[in-house]
TrEMBL record:
Protein source organism: Drosophila ananassae
Protein name, as recorded: Ionotropic glutamate receptor C-terminal domain-containing protein
Protein topology in the membrane: Multi-pass membrane protein
Keyword terms, alphabetized: Cell membrane, Glycoprotein, Membrane, Receptor, Transmembrane, Transmembrane helix
Keyword Transmembrane helix attached: yes
InterPro entries given in the database record: Insect_Ionotropic_Sensory_Rcpt
The keyword Glycoprotein appears for this protein: yes
UniProt subcellular location: Cell membrane
Length: 442
């Protein structure tokens, strides 16, 4: 016997008229009667809430208002990428619920802690922010910078001094040995052969040099000291040169607030952010920085940051630097940096303050929370990253481990040219000395 499934069915027969009403909240709370429920083609109960174009005011400063206007006007001629999803959240909310927004620029409520307790219910755990100082990174070294950092003039003066001391020491030992024992050569103190002493030159470079079998014991001890000195000096010079060649920065970036104060770097800061720092964090924060503190409008400020080539320090949100740093890593450039010791404030809640009787207060908070829970804000961040790359005309650097090229080895050509040029000069000097001695003998 086959298995039988029983489904209970309830059949209702309408024998009298039923009055059905649908509640409409806006513009005024009213009940609309539905005459025929069965023939109604529209949804019986509207699931999508609409404010039917009601006007709401946004109190914001000029920069934030411009950011919201940019999101509203997709055909704007301003193509400068701007980071942050605050304006996007407001625009999406007004478009989703059919709200007309009026921007009032007379107010600046970007940073405030008034009525904070009354707004605790609107705290979003995803909307904490930090204030940091972003500074230019260190610059790459050129061959000229390397020789300048080596202090080549002082090094050359030291080599010539040691060269002269060793020549004088060898000459004194030879003359005294000849006069006391009659061994060796005692043909004067200063001669051309004495000045051009290849043994001393080789010892300074850490190279080996021949020693005659009839060399006296004092000279052997001097040559041993010369060899030890040459080994130590050449090793030290080689290590220092290698460390400079492998070091990628000439002047390291500022890593803490103390270095920031001593660097004299000009700081670009928004007036509302400066007011918040001075009133809520440290009233003397900017007075302790010797450099100038200037205000640049948001459009120009974003152009300075987006160019990734700036000689200024910037006080900005951590979210903004997070986006810029992702672009830097993607294109293989490191122009702006920060550190954990350049954090001014962190993990601070960011809240949109609203009036107690605002009809969008609770709904807007839930809307923003769902944006972060769904990951839509990450999608907006990816779009901002691509906009910045398009603005920089940059492409992703897929291969970070780039092999050496001829350009990377150009410094070896300069070094070899210097060495061969010096050897040719010494060779010509030896030929001149040989011809001079030969003419004297004739």
């Amino acid at each position: 016997m086959s298995k039988v499934q029983i489904h209970p069915i309830l059949i209702m027969e309408i024998r009298q008229k039923v009055a059905v009403y649908r509640f409409e909240m806006f513009r005024e709370p009213t009940f609309i009667r539905l005459k025929n429920v069965l023939r109604n083609k529209k949804p019986l109960f509207m699931a999508k809430l609409s404010f039917y174009g009601m006007t709401t005011e946004l109190h914001a400063d000029l920069d934030f208002a411009n950011q919201v206007n940019q999101y509203y006007n997709n055909k704007s001629m301003d193509i400068t990428p701007r980071f942050g999803t605050n304006g996007k959240e407001i625009v999406e909310f007004t478009q989703r619920y059919n709200i007309t927004m009026k921007i009032d620029r007379r107010f600046n409520i970007s940073f405030s802690n008034s009525n904070y307790l009354a707004s605790l219910g609107l705290v979003n755990p995803y909307r904490s922010f930090s204030l940091i100082v972003v500074v230019p990174c260190g610059t790459e070294m050129s061959l000229k910078d390397i020789f300048k950092h080596l202090d080549f003039q002082s090094l050359l003066a030291f080599i010539l001094t040691v060269y002269g001391i060793l020549i004088i020491a060898e000459t004194v030992i030879r003359v005294l040995t000849y006069r006391l024992h009659g061994v060796g050569s005692g043909s004067g103190w200063i001669t051309a052969r004495t000045v051009v002493n290849l043994r001393v030159f080789r010892s300074i470079l850490g190279m080996s040099f021949p020693i005659g079998r009839r060399t006296t014991l004092p000279l052997r001890q001097l040559f041993l000291a010369m060899s030890v000195f040459g080994m130590v000096f050449s090793t030290f010079f080689g290590c220092k040169l290698t460390s400079l060649m492998t070091k990628h920065t000439r002047i390291g970036p500022v890593t803490n607030l103390e270095e920031l104060r001593s660097s004299g770097l000009t700081i670009v800061v928004d007036p509302s952010i400066r007011k918040f720092i001075e009133t809520k964090i440290d009233p003397d924060f900017f007075k302790k920085i010797p450099g100038d503190t200037i205000y640049v409008p948001m459009k120009e400020r974003m152009k300075m940051i987006n160019s990734l080539k700036t000689n200024f320090g910037h006080v900005m949100f951590g979210e903004t630097f997070y986006q810029i740093n992702k672009v830097q890593l993607l294109i293989g450039r490191k122009e702006v940096c920060t550190s954990k010791d350049l954090v001014i404030a962190e993990n601070m809640p960011r809240i949109f303050f609203m009036e107690n009787k605002s009809y969008v207060k609770w709904l807007f908070n839930v809307f923003v929370l769902r944006i972060y829970e769904s990951g839509l804000n990450e999608k907006w961040r990816r779009d901002e990253k691509m906009e910045l790359m398009k603005y920089l005309h940059a492409r992703p650097n897929r291969n970070h481990n780039v092999p050496l090229t001829i350009g990377d080895l150009m410094w070896t050509g300069y070094l070899l040219s210097f060495g061969y040029g010096l050897s040719i000069i010494i060779f010509l000097a030896e030929l001149y000395l040989y011809e001079t001695q030969r003419n004297q003998m004739i």
